[in-house]
Design goal:
The protein has 138 residues and is an alpha/beta fold. The protein is built from 4 helices and 5 strands. Helix 4 links the parallel strand 4 and strand 5. The longest helix has 19 residues.
């Protein structure tokens, strides 16, 4: 049913992604799909790396740990954006198309008041890509 699963990863909040990561790993094994962990970063130095290459190394280590834990085939894709906070939705949508993903599995928060004024990242992906989107709360 699915051949390539994209998992957007915010390394700054990796501890909050556990349920989404497990769902992606389980679906990857179930369908024999490859999983690609996608991170969006800036070229400016930040808490997750002094440059995009340092960020790539951290995302790669994260993906290898997930691959080992879930026993699946995985890869990474780093998107360098001018302003990740502003460009994240467009960056993730482009990544879905560039990578040929047919499913996006992403962790999400419980909806709150702000969601009435601003769409979620998952909602944006569902309306701007051909991929199915699975949002995992918790």
């Amino acid at each position: 049913m699915f051949t390539k699963i994209m998992v957007p990863v915010d390394l700054a909040h990796a501890e909050k992604l556990e349920r989404g990561l497990k769902a992606a790993g389980d679906l990857g094994k179930l369908y024999g799909a490859s999983v690609v962990y996608v991170g969006v970063t800036s070229s400016a130095p930040g808490a997750l790396g002094h440059n995009p290459e340092e960020y790539r190394q951290k995302l790669d280590a994260f993906a290898k740990a997930q691959q080992s834990e879930h026993g699946l085939t995985s890869d990474i894709h780093v998107v360098v954006a001018h302003d990740p906070a502003v460009d994240i939705n467009q960056s993730l949508a482009r990544a879905v198309d560039e990578l040929g993903c047919d499913l996006v599995v992403m962790a999400t928060h419980v909806p709150n008041l702000a969601d009435h004024f601003m769409h979620s990242h998952g909602g944006q992906l569902a309306t701007h890509t051909k991929a199915s989107v699975l949002l995992v709360r918790g």
